């Protein structure tokens, strides 16, 4: 019986070489990207803005989709700088968070204590359960800010556990 393995290999390699040569020769046959149907914002053009409710150099935000104060889906980016954290607060809806860069420091409960936060590294997922108090950010002395994608359904009805204090804390 004849061994066909080399012949199969040659056919596969030949097909791959033909496809590669066609792409190099500019013979692509797919549709071009329609920027009205597939909207791409390069990282360098993400519209970050300082949070006007917090001190300069504390936190930046970028709303990509929706509005946390209106019904429907929202997606926002948050960048915390070292030395700042949110004050303990709650929401009436779950929030789903993905750490994009840096380490995000999180804790549950109404009592603010940065030393009790847990580092959450880039690539990790955090679910904030509706109605539960929590706080987060980046304590002082850490080497870099963190960036977090936050999404869920609005309105979130943000509520501080102690409304006599501001929504941020030096940490």
What does it look like?
By secondary structure, the chain is mainly β. It has a single domain (43-170), classed as Jelly Rolls, CATH 2.60.120.10. It is 12% helix and 37% strand. The protein contains 1 helix and 13 strands. Strands 1-2-3-11-6-9 form a 6-stranded antiparallel β-sheet, with no helix packed on it. A 5-stranded antiparallel β-sheet has the order 8-7-10-4-13, with no helix packed on it. 20% of the residues are buried.
Give the tags.
171 residues; mainly beta; 6-stranded antiparallel beta sheet; 5-stranded antiparallel beta sheet; 37% strand
Main sheet properties: 6 strands, antiparallel
The percent range for strand residues is: 35-45%
What is the count of β-strands? 13
Our count of domains comes out at 1
Helix and strand run: HEEEEEEEEEEEEE
Structural class determined from secondary elements: mainly beta
- CATH architecture descriptor name: Sandwich
Low-confidence region ranges: none
N- to C-terminal distance: 76 Å
Question: What's the level 1 CATH class?
Answer: Mainly Beta
CATH topology name, in short, is: Jelly Rolls
The radius of gyration is 24 Å
Range of helix content: 10-25%
Given the structure, what is the number of helices? 1
Average pLDDT: 90
Give, in spatial order, the strands making up the sheet with the most strands.
1-2-3-11-6-9
Instruction: Label the overall shape.
Output: elongated
């Amino acid at each position: 019986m004849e061994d066909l393995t080399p012949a199969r290999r040659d056919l596969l390699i030949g097909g791959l070489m033909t496809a590669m040569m066609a792409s190099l020769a500019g013979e692509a046959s797919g549709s071009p990207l329609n920027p009205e149907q597939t909207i791409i914002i390069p990282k360098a053009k993400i519209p970050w803005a300082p949070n006007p409710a917090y001190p300069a150099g504390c936190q930046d935000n970028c709303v990509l989709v929706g509005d946390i104060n209106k019904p429907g889906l929202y997606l926002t980016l948050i960048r915390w700088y070292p030395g700042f954290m949110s004050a303990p607060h709650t929401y009436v809806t779950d929030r789903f968070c993905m750490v994009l860069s840096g380490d995000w420091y999180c804790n549950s409960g109404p009592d603010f204590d940065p030393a009790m936060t847990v580092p959450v590294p880039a690539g990790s997922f955090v679910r904030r359960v509706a109605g539960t108090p929590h706080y987060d950010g980046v304590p002082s002395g850490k080497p870099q800010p963190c960036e977090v994608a936050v999404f869920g359904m609005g309105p979130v009805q943000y509520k501080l556990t102690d409304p006599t204090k501001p929504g941020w804390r030096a940490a």
